[in-house]
Write a structure and sequence with these properties.
This protein is mostly helical. Helices cover 39% and strands 0% of the residues. Helix 1 crosses helix 3 and helix 2 packs across helix 3. The radius of gyration is 15 Å and the shape is globular.
């Protein structure tokens, strides 16, 4: 669940905000996950649809996209309410990095 395809960005020698955060001079190839996440933003999902994503049983990647959608669309004060029942999740591939929560 990375924003850029591995190895597609050249950030050597860049510092500060131009260090690749926005892809200003060294943009890479946007990952499939973030293309799908953008598509979800354009669909303006309902709460029921988001719940369908985060409780999906076929793929942990679908669930991860649902959690990322929540992270980027909901106020920070509401994140605990959304994530609370999933914090002890046993799904191995759904281990989320704490630094983006």
């Amino acid at each position: 669940m990375e924003p850029w395809e591995k190895g597609s960005r050249k950030t050597a020698g860049q510092t500060g905000m131009c260090g690749g955060v926005r892809g200003v001079g060294t943009g890479g190839i946007v990952s499939t996950a973030f293309c799908l996440l953008y598509k979800l933003f354009t669909l303006k999902l309902t709460r029921k649809q988001v719940m369908g994503l985060i409780t999906h049983t076929d793929s942990p990647y679908i669930r991860s996209l649902g959690f990322m959608y929540i992270r980027y669309t909901q106020p920070p004060s509401d994140l605990v309410d959304w994530y609370d029942e999933f914090l002890d999740d046993e799904e191995m591939a759904l281990v989320m990095r704490v630094d983006w929560i």
